[in-house]
Amino acid sequence: SEGRGEMGRGKIEIKKIENPTNRQVTYSKRRNGIFKKAQELTVLCDAKVSVMMYSKTGKFHHYTSPTTTTKKILDEYQKTLGCDIWSTHYERMQENLKQLKEINSNLRRDIRQRVGKDLNDLSIDELYALEQKMDASIAIVRERKVKNLQERNRSLLLEFEARCELDSQYGVVDNEGDYNSTVAFANGVSNLYAFRLHPSHPNLHDEGGFGMNDLRLA
């Protein structure tokens, strides 16, 4: 008998396993064992069993007899103990729904006021606050618009430079002396023209302007 005792499994002190790896391995093994026992109770005794577990890492594991559901088990639990575990949850849901409805109502009112509606009941301070919001919104829209235009201009410039490198028909005329350059787009074809300025009057440069008759192809 002493030999058999030595060959048997030793007792394990029931306390927290400090090593995380050993703790997880023990949890997995014993969890599977509990689920196996729950399944055996279901088959052997026609019992209704529901087991739910959360691991240290927050993973959820559960087993429920095929002949029932977790909700039915909880309903039977409430009926047996004469308690209601759903009422508190329902009240929280109702309170949350009330808050969401209030937020939605405020957002709808704010949208209507921003388009000039429902302003009659606003005080001077409320109108001033609304004006400040509108100014801030306009500034944001204007900033976004300017950014989009800058990005578009950069994109067009890069595209034009790429075409200039690929198309030998393009030429660049430095804007020196009496030359000004311009780009003309027609029928999807880009061409670069250079114009020489020929003032008709000797003092035209001093007047700061040229007429159409003063432009000549260089």
Automatic annotation (TrEMBL):
One of its GO terms (molecular function) is RNA polymerase II transcription regulatory region sequence-specific DNA binding. This is MADS-domain transcription factor. GO terms for biological process: positive regulation of transcription by RNA polymerase II. Transmembrane segments: none annotated. The keyword Iron does not apply. PANTHER family: SERUM RESPONSE FACTOR HOMOLOG (PTHR48019). The keyword DNA damage does not apply. It holds the Pfam family K-box. It comes from Escallonia herrerae. The lineage of its organism: Eukaryota, Viridiplantae, Streptophyta, Embryophyta, Tracheophyta.
